[in-house]
């Protein structure tokens, strides 16, 4: 087999602040044959996306220096004039981006965008031909041709990613570069999209360069895999071999970092610093007799519907209907569901940030349903219930120092003076594994995983009894996710916390939680002890989710 | 810190900052400078000493009477010293502009912050008031208001006291000037309010006051600073324009706008007299505008490294 994408000794440097050169990629050599899927795996900052962009010659020549060679179907890309690159891009080599909503034009219909992509490289093609080809491509990726007249925002995330794939394949390119194409999608949809991409690749003999941080996804989908770290390829080989018998410890750490449905629940996960942790098995926390710490009974949440042209009052949108949950003291409840299932709304109700339309919320026996409206009650509730948020970039105020962020709850709930607060903040940072001397830094000076540690330190500042973690690791790289999960489990055991753990990732929930509740479309589908839900799920939906999980 | 570094790397911005600081120092040190210079801003040198002004009131020496004694020449008619007048005129401009800008910054920040955070009814009322104020013909109002203030508060035959002239100007500029700042801040705060870190603060039990002052305020310094550096030169020109039209600061307080107005009257006979205040205002306002641009660039994370 001949390689259609041949990368030799590729080095990419960016001009940073004050003219300094920053090496992003150094001496990378890769080959992808026709019909082959090559995975390119690494953490953020490893240079994997830079390689993908270099394959299309998409780097800004004014700010990047590229050395080495990239050949696409026999044509050299490095140093090629823009006119030659234009002929190549979209026609011989195409790209599927992570964020389909950002990559598609919001003001043009998807049909028009596909037709345009086709006509750019087929000068003689008429508008009708373009339309026909677009409709055929949409049908091929599983979207009814009748929807060609719809705009990107009218599609769901998975459908949009299908449109992206259709746009990439409309000119039957030799190579497709897919940069984290499914990272933002739910597991079930992710699987469908990947299956489609693999199928189309095989059908047309297209080579796929698949860039991802998730070894689990790569393992399922690729023939060969290259592992990148700090701009270099540390290991390359058949995916099957890398998964079972990697020679580089970094590869082993990446593989072991993501919990799977076979991982021993509660065990320490492998991290880059600790590729093979020794773990005593952790049994599920015992069920204690007595009243639950927190209880949701018959919760219903409605949001006012969007007002259309009609004069009538719009129908409210029901986000959560009749959900009842109990959190026992010292135990961890996992709340699982896909996006739009109402799991985050349910968590917000418990935290007193969202007022339930009906139903009662009890904390420690006390009715706190009104906390979202009653400021005094919410403050009292937040003394015992704290949150860890999903996005470590958005949930920390960029203009406040770490000390100020971590001590916010202390200011609200304690009478500590400045020095006492600082001392407590230093202790908290140590507890979450950060150096104490970083108290005066700002959030942007930290990496994603470190920021999430800061968020956890903030949640623990007033020693709450219940911590609600809303997708605390879904925005993080797999290897960082492992570190944060290890930390959360350690702290939970050390402090005897109760935890509500909201996640879309079944494997993570199975790993962390004692009890599991599954939500779909605002309804509680199933709930019970962890082993019971995972080994003998009672609902069809849970079975479907389990089948899609890695 | 990175903001200051970015500003220091901007050569135009640094030059503008130096010019602005020079103007401020000159204005503050005006009494000292004129004492060393040996002239003051109010004395009618041309009328008191013979041989300086012609019988028509024009300077005898060429170029508006520039000489070793009168560096920038003499005022036609009254015969005051132009250099001293310019220095003291700068004080007038700066007092009005700085005071009005301070009131604007305070009002705009408080209103924009509170209304943006509260939303709802407060916001609707705010938008209405803003629209009304934006629809007001400010200049016409000032022209109409000036004689009213005079007749209402000042006894006939007496001059309007200087403090009253200043106060009226500052209040009128402030009353209309806060609108753009408050509107910008309101939209900024509205988008900040939806950010997760505000919810995180709420979830950790923070009070409204804490969220407004400690979470939101640090995030809107950039628009406030940019607005202030661009409002100030605007008020300098507006004040000069009002004085030119005769509703700003009256004699004998030195004022750039009135100097230009007098310069226009005698332009054919003594063009030099127009040049000094004209060029000074131009440089003064240009320096402030360039500084405002530099501040905006320095605060923008996309241009600053």
Overview features:
heterodimer, A: 550 residues, Rossmann fold, six-stranded mixed sheet, 19 helices, 36% helix, B: 305 residues, 73% helix, elongated
Q: How would you sum up the global shape of chain B?
A: elongated
Let me know the CATH homologous superfamily of the domain at 90-299 in chain B.
MetI-like
Largest interface here, residues on each chain? Answer: A-B, 34 and 20 residues
What gyration radius of chain B follows from the Cα positions, in whole Å?
23 Å
Question: Any chance you could write out the topology, listing elements then pairs?
Answer:
The complex is a heterodimer of chains A (550) and B (305).
Chain A: E1 3-15, E2 21-33, E3 37-41, H1 48-55, E4 64-72, E5 75-76, H2 82-88, E6 93-96, H3 100-103, H4 110-121, H5 127-140, H6 157-169, E7 175-179, H7 187-204, E8 207-212, H8 215-221, E9 224-229, E10 232-238, H9 239-245, H10 249-257, E11 294-303, E12 317-327, E13 332-336, H11 343-351, E14 358-363, E15 366-367, H12 375-384, E16 385-388, H13 402-413, H14 418-431, H15 448-460, E17 466-470, H16 478-495, E18 498-503, H17 506-512, E19 515-520, E20 523-529, H18 530-535, H19 540-548
Parallel strand pairs in A: 3-8, 3-9, 6-7, 7-8, 13-18, 13-19, 16-17, 17-18
Antiparallel strand pairs in A: 1-2, 1-4, 4-5, 9-10, 11-12, 11-14, 14-15, 19-20
Chain B: H1 2-9, H2 11-28, H3 30-37, H4 45-48, H5 62-65, H6 82-118, H7 120-135, H8 138-153, H9 162-193, H10 196-203, H11 208-216, H12 221-245, H13 256-265, H14 272-299
């Amino acid at each position: 087999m001949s390689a259609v994408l041949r990368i030799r000794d590729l080095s990419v440097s960016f001009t940073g602040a004050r003219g300094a050169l920053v090496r992003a990629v150094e001496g990378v050599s890769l080959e992808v044959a026709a019909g082959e899927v090559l995975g390119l795996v690494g953490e953020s900052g490893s240079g994997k996306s830079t390689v993908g962009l270099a394959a299309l010659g998409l780097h800004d020549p004014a700010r990047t220096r590229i050395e080495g060679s990239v050949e696409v179907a026999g044509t050299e890309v490095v140093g090629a004039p823009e006119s030659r690159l234009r002929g190549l891009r979209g026609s011989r080599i195409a790209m599927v981006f992570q964020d389909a909503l950002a990559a598609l034009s919001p003001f043009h219909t998807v049909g028009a965008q596909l037709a345009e992509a086709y006509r750019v490289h087929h000068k003689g093609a008429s508008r009708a031909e373009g339309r026909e080809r677009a409709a055929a491509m949409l049908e091929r990726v599983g979207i009814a041709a009748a929807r060609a007249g719809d705009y990107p925002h009218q599609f769901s995330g998975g459908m949009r990613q299908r449109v992206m794939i259709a746009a990439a394949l409309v000119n039957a390119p030799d190579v497709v570069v897919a940069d984290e194409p499914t990272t933002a999608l739910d597991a079930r949809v992710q699987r469908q999209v990947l299956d489609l991409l693999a199928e189309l690749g095989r059908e047309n003999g297209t080579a796929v360069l698949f860039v991802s941080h998730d070894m689990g996804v790569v393992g399922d989908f690729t023939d060969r895999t290259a592992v990148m770290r700090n701009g270099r390829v540390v290991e390359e080989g058949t995916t099957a071999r890398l998964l079972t018998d990697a020679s580089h410890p970094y590869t082993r750490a990446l593989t072991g970092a993501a919990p799977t449905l076979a991982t021993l629940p509660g065990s320490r996960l492998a991290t880059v610093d600790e590729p093979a942790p020794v773990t005593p098995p952790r049994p599920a926390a015992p069920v204690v007799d007595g009243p639950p710490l927190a209880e949701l009974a018959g919760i219903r949440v409605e949001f006012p519907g969007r007002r259309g042209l009609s004069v009538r009052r719009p129908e409210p949108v029901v986000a959560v209907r009749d959900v009842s949950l109990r959190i026992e003291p010292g135990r961890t409840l996992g709340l699982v569901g896909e996006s739009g299932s109402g799991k985050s709304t349910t968590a917000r109700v418990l935290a007193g940030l969202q007022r339930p339309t009906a139903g009662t919320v009890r904390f420690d026996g006390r009715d706190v349903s009104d906390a979202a409206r009653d400021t005094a009650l919410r403050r009292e509730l937040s003394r015992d219930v704290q949150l860890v948020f999903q996005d470590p970039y958005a949930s920390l105020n960029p203009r406040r120092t770490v000390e100020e962020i971590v001590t916010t709850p202390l200011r609200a709930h304690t009478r500590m003076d400045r020095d006492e607060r600082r001392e407590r903040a230093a202790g908290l940072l140590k507890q979450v594994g950060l150096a104490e001397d970083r108290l005066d830094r700002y959030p942007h000076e930290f990496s994603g995983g470190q920021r999430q540690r800061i968020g956890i330190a903030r949640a623990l500042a007033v020693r709450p009894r219940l911590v609600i973690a809303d997708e605390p690791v879904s925005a993080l790289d797999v290897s960082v996710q492992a570190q944060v999960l290890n930390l959360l489990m350690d702290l939970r055991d050390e402090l005897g916390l109760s935890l509500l753990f909201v996640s879309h990732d079944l494997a993570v929930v199975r790993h962390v939680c004692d009890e599991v509740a599954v939500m779909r479309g605002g309804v509680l589908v199933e709930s019970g002890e962890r082993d019971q839900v995972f080994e003998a799920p009672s609902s069809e939906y849970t079975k479907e989710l389990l089948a899609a999980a890695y | 810190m990175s903001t200051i570094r970015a500003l220091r790397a901007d050569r135009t911005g640094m030059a503008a900052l130096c010019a602005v600081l020079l103007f401020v120092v000159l204005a503050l040190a005006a009494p000292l400078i004129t004492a060393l210079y040996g002239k003051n801003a109010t004395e009618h040198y041309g009328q008191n000493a013979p041989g300086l002004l012609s019988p028509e009131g024009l300077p005898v020496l060429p170029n508006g009477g520039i000489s070793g004694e009168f560096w920038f020449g003499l005022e036609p008619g009254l015969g005051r010293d132009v250099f001293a007048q310019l220095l003291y005129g700068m004080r007038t401009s700066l007092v009005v502009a700085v005071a009005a800008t301070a009131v604007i910054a305070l009002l705009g920040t408080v209103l924009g912050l509170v209304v943006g955070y509260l939303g709802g009814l407060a916001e609707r009322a705010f938008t209405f008031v803003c629209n009304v104020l934006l629809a007001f013909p400010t200049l016409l109002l000032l022209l109409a208001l000036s004689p009213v203030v005079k007749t209402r508060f000042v006894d006939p035959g007496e001059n309007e006291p200087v403090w009253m002239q200043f106060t009226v100007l500052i209040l009128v500029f402030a009353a209309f000037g806060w609108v753009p700042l408050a509107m910008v801040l309101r939209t900024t705060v509205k988008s900040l309010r939806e950010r997760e870190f505000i919810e995180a603060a709420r979830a950790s039990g923070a009070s409204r006051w804490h969220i407004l002052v400690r979470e939101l305020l640090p995030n809107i310094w950039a628009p406030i600073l940019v607005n202030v550096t661009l409002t100030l030169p605007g008020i300098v020109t507006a004040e000069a324009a009002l004085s030119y039209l005769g509703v700003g600061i009256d004699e004998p307080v030195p004022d750039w706008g009135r100097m230009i107005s007098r310069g226009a009257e005698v332009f054919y006979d003594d063009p030099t007299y127009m040049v000094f205040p004209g060029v000074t205002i131009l440089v003064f306002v240009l320096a402030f505008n360039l500084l405002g641009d530099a501040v905006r660039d320095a605060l923008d994370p996309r241009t600053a490294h």
